[in-house]
Write a structure and sequence with these properties.
binds oxa(dethia)-CoA, globular, 9 helices, alpha/beta, 32% helix
Length: 315
Amino acid sequence: MRIIGTGSALPKKIVTNEMLSQFLDTSDEWITTRTGIKSRHVISDEKIEDLGAEAVRKALDMSGLKPSDIDLFIVSNVITNQDTPGMSCLVAAKVGLSCPMFDINCACPGFVYALDMAETYYKAGKVKNVLIACIEEPTRMTSWEDRSTCVLFGDGAGAAVLTEGDNIKGTKLHSQPDVDKIWMSRKLVPSPYVTTPDLEVPLQMKGREVFRFAVEACTNGVKRLLDEVGIKKDDVSWFMVHQANKRIIDSIIDFMQVPSERFPVNIHDHGNSSSASCPILLDECNRKGMFKEGDIIVLSAFGAGLLSGAAVLEW
Ligand code: UT7
């Protein structure tokens, strides 16, 4: 397939590190040096599905396609306060989509997983045009009393429209199931038959172990994928890596020995927006006119599961 439109939307409320240090035992200095984050967009009076619809409309506008042209709508979303119908249906009702649609919950690598699915449906001859949206509000998963998690995240939505083409050169998905490294759990409606208590626990993360996984999964995954498709790392124009932590990105750059200018970053004013991070970055770079026809772009993301994935595209 080929990407012909991108879009993104962010909550209007911007929370700086200084604002966090007013109610948490933290500082701009700690957050900046450990993560590279200075501020993040945080959901307040908006609904995340409205931001999802805005990102989708922008991507459709850029593509020149109408909602009725879309054959499949894939939404990546970890959590929202409405469990059913899924986020794909909530957004479809707002933008007028009526194709087959479903949600995936692959955490931060959701965009790469969705690209892999889109390409697989396309190669099976089932679709011509696919819309992907990653719509995330991780700031509603963390405890705002837990300085080790809440400072890391931001919310937002990113979308991409794909059509026929030979521009996805390859994808590589990876899992290393390990369910206590990043997790949260919430209570369901009580049932008279359930005898075990539900846990209500905000996001928990073993930061250092996730850090190690992220660096290894990204460097190994990208290397294997590039070897498989026969593209040299020096021929890659842009490495769009999940914006989780600037130190993770710097370690990946060190391991891969690639000039840092080829790693666009927006973590300083977004934080980690889970699966929305890659398509938001893609859209921002695209709208700045950074991509030229023929550019090779690598996308790589990692997160809860533990899951990771990489994709290589020609622009
Ligand atoms: O989307 C994928 C999901 N997540 C990630 O990619 C996250 C991967 N991990 C990381 O980014 C880093 O591990 C963190 C940024 C989460 C943490 O950085 P770290 O260098 O691994 O710090 P640490 O967790 O080892 O904590 C060091 C110290 C601790 O204090 P003590 O025990 O040494 O006294 C923490 O309590 O820093 C303390 N700390 C803080 N201090 C000020 C933790 N959070 C904060 C904070 N402000 N916000």
